[in-house]
Amino acid sequence: MEKRKIKVGVCVECKVRNNDSSKKKLFKCEHCERFFCKKHLPPRLVMLRSSIDRIEDPILRDKVYEEWRRPDGHPDWDWSRKYLWEIKTKEEENREKFFKVLDELKQVEEKPILETVEKKFLVTEDPFVASSKTTNKKRDFIEDLFWKIRVNIYNFIKHTLIVLIFLVIIHFFVIGKFGLISLVLRAILLVIFGYFLSFIYRKTEHLIPYKWLFLGIIVILTTYIYSAQDYSILKISDIILGAPKFTDTLVQKISQHNSELIRNPEAIADIVKSLFRYKTSKEVLIDKVVEFRNNTNILEQKIHLLINEERRKNNLKMLRWDENLANIARYHSKDMATKNYFSHKSLEGEDLEMRYKKFGYFCRIPVGNLIYSGAENILLNYIYHSYYYDPLTGEITGYVFKSLDDVSYEVVEGWMNSEGHKRNILTPFFEREGIGVYISDDGKVYVTQNFC
Fold first, then answer.
1. What is d(CA 344, CA 341) in angstroms, rounded to the nearest whole number?
2. 39, 166, 234, 259: which has the fewest Cβ within 10 Å?
3. What is the per-residue pLDDT across 125-176, written as a single tens digit (0 to 9) for each?
4. Which whole-number Å values give the CA distances from 197 to 46, 142, 145, 440, 446, in the listed order?
5. Spatial CB neighbours of 54, under 8 Å, sequence gap ≥ 6
């Protein structure tokens, strides 16, 4: 077996989770090829909890939960995809085995209790047995239907009682009277409707978004309220708000403006949009990008402090902050982000010396017989550690964002792990530096460091 590569450094997971910046032995992960300590070396599952809940096999679901809740390890996308594919394959195999056994059981015929000597008196010809077999078929059909809906009689009765108690409480405290038979029938219908929605949701393999299911329930309840003129469900808001006439006033105002709403359907659409407004993962990312952009000066100073800390460890003089160098660095970082490239030389062929000249910055450092005109480090990072996605659609559903400290630490660590960048940082005769940061719209962090 090929031996893992080992190096000494700071484990990123230890830094982020435990604020542990001590150096230790790091081992290369065979999946993502990044370096971690022994505790965080094993790959860890990256998956949404809602996606885990969709696994029908309880044993497999518990196994995935156990893997998902592990405190050690590091999030690894490649390993997660492979792990989830094996889980999905295992689940399909178990489902096929189950249906195969079920078909075999249905094909087995029950032997009659009493056997006659003559073939013409076979029990199968007994009308009583024939009717019992018909009854068994009906029972099998009903049980199969209930199995598909994932419910049994006990759960059905339990759910009906819960809904019935809820309706009784509402009618007793709000109206003061109620008809028990009508409430029982209403509770049964509500439970059956809930099972039907659950059945449709599973049959479509969870492709119907939660918000549309919720919207469908609201529309159906609204239709029921208007058709039956039964506002008792809404009157619970009177108790919550402490306004006894709230529901009656609301219904009266809606009734007065019904004709206007029908003539202006755009008003209804605006109301619905405002009620069901939520931020998508892309909108959340944009908000975080704006937040980081508003704090780029703070991020630049954090990186500057960490750079001087590295120089202090090596008994070197601290670098002074040069705002003119920082402006040159910011210019190059923004140019890389907006034009989507990553290089010391721009797409127009502009290098470090040309940028210094463009900004009127003069840098000449005589060292022996040589004259140095400065140096430059660049680095590309992200404002998030990782992201979650829906395995069914491939859509990104959420991000795990970094803090300013996380980004600054990873920037300096990345430079110190690179021989050329480290040489620039620890050059003894450099006296000043400027750091420029720019955040792109997709969450990339472009960092430029200029020396003189």
1. 10
2. 259
3. 444 444 444 556 556 555 555 545 455 677 778 877 887 787 777 666 555 5
4. 29, 18, 15, 42, 48
5. 206
